[in-house]
Amino acid sequence: MTRAPGPSSRTEPGDWTADEMMTVAAARSLVGRTACFVGIGLPSMAANLARRLHHPDLVLVYESGTIGAKPRTPPLSIGDGELAETADAVVGVPEIFAYWLQAGRIDVGFLGAAQIDRYGNINTTVVGPDYRHPKVRLPGAGGAPEIAASCREVFVVVRHGSRTFVERVDFVTSFGYGDGPGHRERLGLRGRGPVLVITDLGTLEPDPVTCELTLTTVHPGVEVAAVRTVTGWDLAVSEALRVTEPPTERELTVLRDLTAAGGRRTVGSKGDGSRTSESKGDTE
After folding, report:
1. Is the pTM above the cut of 0.85?
2. Which of 63, 153, 205, 251 is catalytic?
3. Tens-of-pLDDT digits for all 284 residues of the chain?
4. Which among 27, 23, 68, 76 has a CA at the least distance from the CA of 47?
């Protein structure tokens, strides 16, 4: 599902990091989409990269009420003034959810995850079996449950590891396919659910029959065995497994410029209006 880049200077393994490959692949996935409801962290970086690279008309929507945000630097939170200052419009939170999101007007919801299971259910609430006394209490839901329920499609971008890709999430914050085929339909959810999961090792897509996440693409230099090792279930692999196109020089240059701009904002004020960040718990 991730599209190949257009003609440009090719790069070789070792020219990029796994996180850069993941972010570039996530940005490519937004080609052809109109409006994207963006989560903070990795999803926001990928969406802003897509707008700079190949999709300048992509409408970025953040749950704080900003529509058509064009941040010059990566936002530090949904309340970052950069989003309001560069948006086409700023509306109230009830309107962004009731009129735009729940009414099905958003093409893609871009989310992260602390845990994700074989059916694309996402946990960003607690780690551990006891909600009241968890091993780790996470940032929580925010607008993610509504994004997962109502966007026409959901993309997830997350680093691939055994603590993240689990057999069963400890808490269902954002609904994927529940316990399998038909569960979303029984609940009357509007959107299709998670149709693409992009990681630093490859991409996964739900099987059209079982709804189970299936490995469809590996990034350059990644072996299927390595992906299976850090997946908490018996991962199915597509018969038509593909290898992701490497990042181009332009993709890497734009991404690194964007990353550097974000890094400069976290250093602290230098008298030029930049803000200091102690941002915690990005939902990635």
Report:
1. yes
2. 63
3. 545 455 556 667 678 999 999 999 999 999 989 999 998 888 999 999 999 998 899 999 999 999 999 999 999 998 999 999 999 999 999 999 999 999 999 999 999 999 999 999 999 999 999 999 999 999 999 899 999 999 999 999 999 999 999 999 999 999 999 999 999 999 999 999 999 999 999 999 999 999 999 999 999 999 999 999 999 999 999 999 999 999 999 999 999 999 998 765 544 444 333 333 333 334 44
4. 27
Q: Which CATH architecture has domain 18-262?
A: 3-Layer(aba) Sandwich (3.40)
Domain ranges of the chain: 18-262
User: What letter represents residue 247's amino acid?
Assistant: P
Cα 164 to Cα 112, 117, 205, distances in angstroms: 11, 8, 16
63 catalytically annotated: yes
User: Cα–Cα–Cα angle for 113, 149, 216, nearest 5°?
Assistant: 55
φ/ψ region of 182 (left if φ > 0, alpha if ψ in -120 to 50, else beta) reads left
| Sign of the dihedral through C-alpha 218, 126, 111, 214 | positive
Q: Is 66 exposed, middle or buried (0-12, 13-18, 19+ CB in 10 A)?
A: buried
Closest by CA position to 128, among listed 173, 169, 178: 169
